[in-house]
Design goal:
Blueprint: H1 19-35, H2 37-52, H3 54-79, H4 84-103, H5 112-123
């Protein structure tokens, strides 16, 4: 398995000035990677191991989503004046949808990135 075959969620988040388009682009890539069978099987195994050992969980988070979470939070907060906590919950919601689909072996269908990005961009308002 090569680096490109894995779910590298820490890829940079685009910043074109259009939050909807930027999130959609990032999500399309993350969803495509998580929908590949080798990646899905690997990640299911890693999640199972993480459930049993907190140090494995921390390493999994750091390697798969830690940098992505920070980049996504920064991108959301740049476009929407929300608290860091609201941005963190927002990011957990969009990445959680991918993880849930992965764990239940129900890949997200075509168009999911646009729907998720739209929920986030359209659903956030000033605090």
């Amino acid at each position: 398995m090569t680096h490109d075959d894995t779910l590298v969620a820490d890829a940079g988040v685009p910043d074109t000035g259009d939050l909807q388009a930027d999130l959609e682009s990032w999500l399309e890539d993350a969803i495509a990677r998580s929908n590949s069978q080798p990646t899905a099987g690997l990640l299911r195994g890693l999640v199972a191991a993480a459930a049993e050992d907190s140090s494995v969980a921390e390493n999994l988070f750091a390697s798969l989503s830690g940098r992505a979470e920070q980049a996504l939070i920064a991108r959301v907060r740049q476009a929407k004046p929300v608290s860091a906590e609201t941005a963190r919950i927002t990011v957990a919601a969009i990445t959680g949808a991918i993880i849930y689909a992965l764990l239940t072996n129900r890949p997200l269908p075509e168009g999911s990135a646009a729907v998720l990005a739209g929920l986030i961009d359209g659903g956030l308002s000033r605090e």
